[in-house]
Every structure is written in structure tokens, then in C-alpha cells.
Amino acid sequence: MRLFHDPPLPSPFGQAGMSRENYAGFFWEFVRDRRAVGAVAPSSQRLARHTVNAIDWSRVQRLVEYGPGTGAITEAIMERKPPQVDFFGIELNTRFVAELKERFTGMTVFNDSVANVGQLATSLGWPHVDAVISGLPWSSFTEGQQDEYLDAMQRALSPHGQFATYAYLTGLPLPAAKRFRAKLHQYFPHVKRTRTIWRNVPPAFVYYCSK
Ligand SMILES: C[S@@+](CC[C@H](N)C(=O)[O-])C[C@H]1O[C@@H](n2cnc3c(N)ncnc32)[C@H](O)[C@@H]1O
Q1: Ligand 1 pocket residue status of 97, Cβ below 6 Å
Q2: What's the pTM?
């Protein structure tokens, strides 16, 4: 019989440092709040690395992660981020915040909404944010939420700000996903899309946007 205390999953879809218990916890949070969590499982290592590698790190001094969840993308950020880059996360789910603090000792993570990114950055004395890496489920959001979060990010980002976020291939036909893509072009002069990362459940790709 397999127990939740089994060692971390070796699957190509798995995350280093994530146990079956972590996966079950993530799924449970999805059941509790589908719209905000927006995925049945955390991102794979491959998707996390693609998301983080989309950023031009030579232009980043201050970075914010949106919706770190249980830390799939956070782990890739920690691996890739030059040590001098200041970094914090914003996570709405209280349980995930507790897990993140346990997994990444010393990480600054606010239990708050990304709508407040400007105030949170100011509270740390940051004049602006150079890059946002997002794990938010943009295609589960209403148009009002998409606008609120993109407006707040636009105000917080520096004049050369960058934004990377992943999207699920399966969600692309949804009106909210199409609307989000159209909005990216309204907010950013440069929008690119990576190839599909098939080793993720579900398969996904990354939008990279810059001012
Ligand atoms: C699809 S999960 C991604 C988790 C993780 N980044 C990953 O890739 O595995 C989306 C996360 O965004 C968080 N979230 C949703 N709306 C949010 C908001 N307005 N502000 C901050 N976090 C939010 C959810 O609680 C959830 O942890």
C-alpha cells in the first residue's frame, strides 16, 4: 500500500521536494476554490524553468512572484535568480503561504491579493518592480479581475518592466483566455509566446511581455 509519506515523486511531471502529501494538499485547495487555484496540480519543473528563463535577468533588480502556490515556480526562481535580486511573493491562499514559509526559509511572502502589489512593494521601500513572474490562473478570472490585476501591475512595473506568465493549451479556446491574450497586447508593446511544454499537466506555454 502506498502512503502519503512516500518519497518525492520521480515522475517527469513532478516537482523536486514535493511529496504525495503536497500534491494531495494542492488538489484539495483546488476543490475548495477552483477559480483562484485554477489547476489540479502544481506546475512541472520543466514549465517552471521555461517561465523563469523567459525573463531577461540582466535587467532585473526587483522581482515579484504572483500566486506561488506550493512553490513550483518559486523553486526555479531561487535556482536562477542572481543573489542581488530582491524578491517577494504574493499569495492569496493562507495554507499555501504557510507551506511556502516552511519550504523556503526566509522568503518574503505576503498573504494578500496581487491587486495590492504597489502598496506591498512600497512597504518594502521599493520604488518600482522590474519583473513579475506569474502563476495566476488568468483564464479563470472575470474581466473585472483581469483588468484590476493588470492595471495594478502596470502601475507597479518600471518603464522597462517585464512580465512572464504561463497559460494552459487546453484553456486557449475559452473566451476569458482569448480576452486575456488581447489585453496583454493592450498593456505591453512586446508580447511573445514560447513553444508548448508538453511535459506539464495540462500542457502549457509561456507568454513573455515587456514594455
Ligand atoms: C494555478 S495555481 C499556481 C501555483 C504555482 N505557481 C504553480 O505554478 O504550481 C494559482 C495560484 O494563484 C493564487 N491566486 C489566485 N488569485 C490570486 C490573487 N488575486 N492574488 C494572489 N494569489 C492569487 C492561488 O491561490 C494559487 O496558489
Answers
A1: no
A2: 0.90
Structural domain includes residue 12: no
Ligand 1 atom closest to the CA of 115, numbered from 1: 19
Please report, for the domain that includes residue 150, its CATH number.
3.40.50.150
140-156, pLDDT tens digit by residue?
A: 999 999 999 999 999 99
* Single-letter amino acid code for the residue at 22: N
Task: Measure 1 CA to ligand 1 centroid, in angstroms.
Answer: 32
- Radius of gyration of the chain measured on its C-alpha atoms: 16
At 5-54, the pLDDT tens digits run: 333 443 434 555 566 667 777 777 777 777 777 777 788 999 999 999 99
Distance CA 148, CA 129 (A): 17
Look up the domain containing 82 and give its range.
20-210
Q: Pick the atom of ligand 1 nearest to 135's CA.
A: 6
Q: If 0-12 CB within 10 Å is exposed, 13-18 middle and 19+ buried, where does residue 144 land?
A: exposed
Residue nearest to atom 2 of ligand 1 (CA): 37
Q: Are 156 and 117 in contact (CB under 8 A)?
A: yes
Q: Please tell me if the CB atom of residue 25 comes closer than 6 angstroms to any atom of ligand 1.
A: no
